[in-house]
Amino acid sequence: MTNINHHIIDRGDGAAVELFQAHPIGSGEPGGAILFVHGNQEGQLTGARELVDRGTLSTFAVAMNVTAAAVSQPGFGASDGPCDFCGPNTQDAIIAALNALKNQPSIDPGRIVLYGHSRGAVAAGMVAARYDGLRAVVLSSGVYDLNAFHMDCADGLRIAIETEAGQSAQAFHERSALFHADKITTETLLLHGRHDDRAPVAQAEAFSVALENSGGKVVLKVLECGHRLPAKTLKGVVEPFLKERLSAEQMIH
Predict the structure, then answer these.
(1) What angle do CA 149, 114, 10 make, to 5 degrees?
(2) Helix residue ranges, H only, the chain
(3) What is the pLDDT of residues 22-57, one digit of tens each?
(4) Quick one: CA dihedral 52, 55, 59, 62, positive or negative?
(5) In this model, does residue 149 exceed pLDDT 70?
(6) What's the per-residue H, E or C state across 30-70?
(7) Are the beta carbons of 48 and 20 closer than 8 angstroms?
């Protein structure tokens, strides 16, 4: 069983950031934590509540015996907008959530994993380049060179990018983790569907090479699926990775 709490925290500039947390009941010593960053949601804009309603937070909290949290990006859920397509305000919201977790006595600040999917992976990849002390980062179905993606993506996504971020070189640069790979020192697990029709698998392959060339520790898993990764497949790949990185024994060694 878990307790799920709802928080509104400050992004650092007075803007509200929504954070949900599922805590395993009866835990004693400080434990690890996972912070999830949601995807695009196709106009629903429910933000982190999607992961509460799906049972994702409760499932991970129980399976891993950790705090499982989710943050709403600006313009989603109860987080103040506007949306900025994974830009500085979104990254700052994620960083505020990470700091909120790190400062809780029930959480070991050295055992926090950041997990972003799709749009959330774009933002989480950039946060990994800006934020020290993450135990690991998991990025699924993301894009890591936004300018290259923008030129060939579907009309709806292209309009969203142009509306929220603009089309300047700076805007693309500050949303493209590929060009910040040398700043990412945490262990990274990249997950991508070989048949993804939204985010080309070449994006993950190029990012993996960039991380390797920068001396980073990265694992790329290309799965036989599309943009949405099957839960059964994820369980077999993600759970072992997370359990090893979030265990207290691994931190001791």
Answers:
(1) 95
(2) 49-53, 56-64, 88-102, 119-130, 146-152, 155-165, 169-173, 201-213, 231-246, 248-252
(3) 988 775 689 999 999 999 987 789 999 999 999 999
(4) positive
(5) yes
(6) CEEEEEEECCCHHHCCCCCHHHHHCCHHHHHHHHHCCEEEE
(7) yes
Q: Which amino acid is at 91?
A: Q
Q: Which residues pair with 115 in a beta bridge?
A: 36, 138
Provide the 10 A C-beta neighbour count for residue 129: 17
**In sequence order, which residues have a C-beta less than 8 Å from that of residue 148 and are 6 or more positions away?**
203
Handedness of CA 176, 178, 181, 187 (dihedral sign): positive
- The whole-model pTM stands at 0.95
Coil, strand or helix at 177: helix
What is the distance between the alpha carbons of residues 240 and 235, in angstroms, rounded to a whole number? 8
